[in-house]
Amino acid sequence: MDMKVNIAGVEWNNPVTVASGTFGSGAEFAEYVDLNRLGAVTTKGVANIPWTGNPTPRVAEVYGGMMNAVGLQNPGIDLFCERDIPFLRQYDTKIIVNVCGKSVEDYCEVVERLAGEDVDLLEINISCPNVKEGGIAFGQQPKAAEEITRAVKKYAKQPIIMKLSPNVTSIAEMAKAVEAGGADAVSLINTLTGMKIDIDRKSFVLANKTGGVSGPAIHPIAVRMVYEAANAVSVPIIGMGGIADASDAIEMILAGASAVSVGTANFFNPAVTMKIVDGIEAYMNKHHFETVKEMTGFVK
Questions:
Q1: What residue ranges do the domains of the chain occupy?
Q2: What architecture is the 5-54+71-194+213-295 domain classified under in CATH?
Q3: Which of 34, 99, 247, 280 is 20 to 30 A (C-alpha) from 113?
Q4: What 3-state DSSP class applies to 137?
């Protein structure tokens, strides 16, 4: 039995990574998780310059998960290259750098800077607000998503994964748009937009008013969207959204994901990824799957 998966020409030891923003860049989880046992580590989003993020409060608990409006706070590409890449390179795991920006130029600058760095894949977060288009996310219009994919591809030396927003009419249409733009893989879903009101204070819980909802409550939506995307494009899919145990991860793979990404669950069980890797392996043994590829999209 072989746990290895191939994502856009990059071979991972197993199909499990972590969702950007839920794992830092690995250092804070290293005492709970053997990073060598992860197929890949996906870093927190990194921009061309440091971002302070949104005002607090910016995280809230909700039924079946959480809501955040952190606003992609990050130290910028210079510190990231100096500190985080060397740390991750100590481990036998692939490095996926999540890239964010407020304009096409921002993204291209980061991607160009990473061209000479020892990282394996780039995940382009197109749920960022496009400041030049009045704050509409790049990932909410097929044409904009295709254009940013094409622009980034000109500068990228590594394969690019386009991270899709679920806050759209048709996820299949968005997946096709980024594939047309040259995406090497897609990852989905990012958070769903939500709101929480404190009824005693009669005010919004988050300073930003709205935030991204993640956690087990969104899992069935994510499975449906992974299935739709997988049946619309031929590039590999990395499935995420509310994965809390091995069965959730297996569901994503059967729906069409070539790999899975674990997010919110890291907060309430920092060692959850190890259990998921073991659980997928046990399932493959029990159901006589020789490779993860055999399982991918098994349910039609």
A1: 5-54+71-194+213-295
A2: Alpha-Beta Barrel (3.20)
A3: 34
A4: strand
